[in-house]
Fold:
Amino acid sequence: MAVKINVIWIIDSLGQGGAEHLMPGILSHIDRGRFELRVCSLQERFGNPIAEKIKELGIPVDMVSVPHLRTPGALENLRRYLREHRADVVHTQLEFSDTLGSLAARLEHIPSVSTLHVIPEPSIRSREFWRHRLMWLSLKYCSHRVFAVSEGARQHYIKHGGLPPARVQTLYNGIDLSRYGVTDEIKDRTRLELGLPTGAPVLITVAYLREPKGIQYMLEALPDVLNVYPECRYLIVGDGDFRLVLEAQTRDLRLEHNVIFTGRRSDIPDVLAVSDIFVLPTLTEALPTVLAEAMAARKPVIASKVGGVPEMVDDGVNGLLLPPADARKLAKAIISLLGDPERAAAMGKAGFDIAAARFDLDRQCRQLEACYSELAAAGKRG
Structure:
């Protein structure tokens, strides 16, 4: 009987961010007959709710506390953890994990791989800029393989991070399309729960609520939409540090009747099913998996033309691409699609076809398995 390859995933936290949200789906599709999986979180955010979903898969979840990169003993604690659990391959995700996890693995002579989920563009005067420089150095000299979730992200890290092109590959995030076939009964129940009037057009954004998601521009656009469709509702699904600002803006614009803050939801396919248009007014994005989810739910997409978004949305085919931070054009695009339901439906169907072709979860997991096997074999030879 072949010995399993012991793979440890290290991630900054297990809150409700995009990278965290993806983990249970990916981990559930990795061949457990060949790979022993374990997850290590370095911080706690919003109670780390994703940890419970991972534990339900029978995968152990541990905590090695690293509140700050300069936390005394953090690197040595990670090295001790990797030794204790006899890692064959380390897979890091997000800033602290990429920085410290990659270095700890290198010092322990364990091959490591990283997945880069974002395209950071911090000011050179900020601490964040220098933290990212440190992360890039760690990946450049310590990580054996780097996966960028879009070609745009790949080119960014090669150009700005100095990562060797041969070591950086594009690997799109995948989703399980079977989760998005929602019954009429569930749709009716969800509409009732959310207080959505029968026949009212529904717009939706699903995101971790922070300023770069650009939701403030959608709120700015909404009054123009309501002039044409006064019963329209806008669902803001998610939570985060920027929520209070968005709620204040909603009150200032007197939109309380039309904007619904749902908070964090575990039934994303259900809330997508009751919407008509998915809106992502983001200011920067590597590859927003939530767009693939909207496409799997057969929803037309209106999104900003930034980062990896054009690799998901073919303008005029499965949605509309707009310049970021332009509320007037955003309102105009929404009014246009709400007024042409046949076009919107055709875009939704095209989106499903694109999601099936580009963002297949099984394909993503087979590539990860091949990477783990290759790195583990090389590590043993080394």
Q: What stands out?
A: The chain has a mean pLDDT of 94.
